[in-house]
């Protein structure tokens, strides 16, 4: 029973929640998984894929349980210091929703949509928009992976015409729509737009509930380093994917929930310099536009580990025989805690492999 | 310079001759005058002997009769031990007798407090009583919201006209004008940042472009009128723009958060909406320095969270 996030309560804080093989195959995405490379390699080494049950995660799940789904969607905003588990909290919420049979829209590390050299091309649908096909097709693969058991059961409501000769009939399943998008990279961005349109305009009572999980949501309200014409940077709103995802973040649709996370590391400006943001205040990081877009949301603070949690983390390492020798003595534990200062990321790095 | 050398190096003369020689030389500005108390008092007595009437005059008359108008300094009429001028080493400044510096500067000896009082008393019969309704500063502002400020220069020079006298400064507190949010924002934008003080809400128009004060005054009036009526117009290009809190004020009814709450279809009169509105205003009006987390900002976030939870009717984690 403890393997289902729905049954967790405050007394379970600090315990580890294990994702089994089946969960892993769906939750650990192929491209841009929320889990860091460090986390995945560590899980491989420990031979166990665990997420710690923490208070912010329980809080999100609590709200998801009690929300009124006939009303417009609620937005939950995770904020807190760097390396404290905002993304892991989001993954915890995702694993809850997946077990409840929700349709999930995962978007991790959205900075990568806006940064670096990408193939971008003017949209066929709307000349003002810019597609990045590669990112879009990768996102579709992620979408297919995480919702593999659901996509066959949902059907489109209208006909979509891609080109003169290609079109999708009304009433085909989402799975075939997504497959079409992955096969024809050119239309991948438009397929995403269609899926999002179906979600926003759903009126079928059998349509599953949707969870939109966007990490680094502040990237949608910042700047890009992409250029489609020399000298002019593309605005985030011009990108088809960003434009469509921002529609999902509004409270104009029902039967769903939105969990978004802020990201303060690596906020780059257009010259490539990383700006230091010391604040964790949502209004500072999102900016006025972003804050208004998400208002009213429920801010959920993801703090550093409490003492119990950090000791529990060390106990987990010791149980998996990862910490041995001097580090399992009382002095060794005290030293690790002293150096890492209850920061989850620091503990993981300090106890991690070389 | 034989005499000077003689005096300087051989001061063996008798007292009286020495005094005379010293003062004569000192007057010519050739030698520093040594500070000798008794020599000064002797000098003073000498002066008194030369003008025996002046102290007696002082004691008998009113000062405003002795010195009724502005006039040049006269050491024999002013019974004050004044000293002025460049100080030599180990010397006191030159005294008032024959002192050019004292005669050059303007004096206000005709404006002593009793003289001013006398003057006012003489003018009083021409004045009317002050209106009783105007008790406080607020009353003034209600009746006369527009203040005009000019400066008159009075100078004893070749011409009575001073070019700075043409400048007209008009100030008005904007809350005295009927303005809505848009008009107010537009007026402050049109007038410019430097003419509007946000802390006091005062708009200041300083006009000095015309050669005569009357023209400047007319222009200032025209400017204010034009600003007012122009700010009430809404041009077609303004419709898409955001007038959220770009002027530093949060107009909640215009803000996107108001629109978002409208979407929620909850009862509009409920107290949850009020608390939510206050919490949003607190969060956005940035208590404390942006970029840093402080206690105040943390409590603002927590208030916001609890108000939203009430608004959306969600239970807290038990």
Descriptors for this entry?
heterodimer, A: 354 residues, alpha/beta, five-stranded parallel beta sheet, two-stranded antiparallel sheet, 14% strand, globular, B: 318 residues, mainly alpha, Double Stranded RNA Binding Domain, 3 domains, four-stranded antiparallel beta sheet, 13 helices, 4 strands, 5% strand, elongated, disordered N terminus
Task: Please tell me about this protein's structure.
- The complex is a heterodimer of chains A (354) and B (318).
- Chain A has 13 helices and 15 strands.
- Chain A is α/β, with parallel strands linked by helices and 354 residues long.
- Chain A folds into two domains: 229 residues, no CATH class; 45 residues, no CATH class.
- Chain A has a five-stranded parallel β-sheet. A two-stranded antiparallel sheet of chain A has the order 1-2. A two-stranded antiparallel sheet of chain A has the order 5-6.
- The two termini of chain A are 36 Å apart.
- The mean pLDDT of chain A is 86.
- Chain B has a four-stranded antiparallel β-sheet.
- The longest helix of chain B is centred in the C-terminal third of the chain and has 19 residues.
- Chain B starts with a helix and ends in a 6-residue tail after the last helix.
- The N terminus of chain B is likely disordered.
- Chains A and B meet through α3, α10 and β15 of A and α11, α12 and α13 of B.
- Chain A: InterPro entries: P-loop_NTPase, Ribosomal_mS29, Ribosomal_mS29_met.
- Chain A: Pfam families: DAP3.
- Chain A: GO terms for molecular function: structural constituent of ribosome.
Provide the fold topology.
The complex is a heterodimer of chains A (354) and B (318).
Chain A: E1 16-18, H1 21-27, H2 37-46, E2 50-52, H3 55-66, E3 74-79, H4 86-99, E4 103-107, H5 111-114, E5 121-122, E6 130-131, H6 133-146, E7 160-161, E8 167-168, H7 174-183, H8 188-200, E9 210-214, E10 227-229, E11 232-233, H9 240-249, E12 256-261, E13 267-268, E14 274-275, H10 282-294, E15 297-301, H11 307-319, H12 330-340, H13 344-351
Helix pairs in contact in A: 3-4, 6-7, 7-8, 8-9, 12-13
Chain B: H1 2-9, H2 15-27, H3 37-50, H4 54-60, H5 63-66, H6 100-104, H7 113-123, H8 137-143, E1 147-149, E2 168-173, H9 181-191, E3 196-197, E4 202-207, H10 213-231, H11 256-263, H12 271-284, H13 295-312
Antiparallel strand pairs in B: 1-2, 2-4, 3-4
Helix pairs in contact in B: 9-10, 12-13
Organism (chain A): Ciona savignyi (Pacific transparent sea squirt)
Pfam family, one (chain A): DAP3
GO molecular function, one term (chain A): structural constituent of ribosome
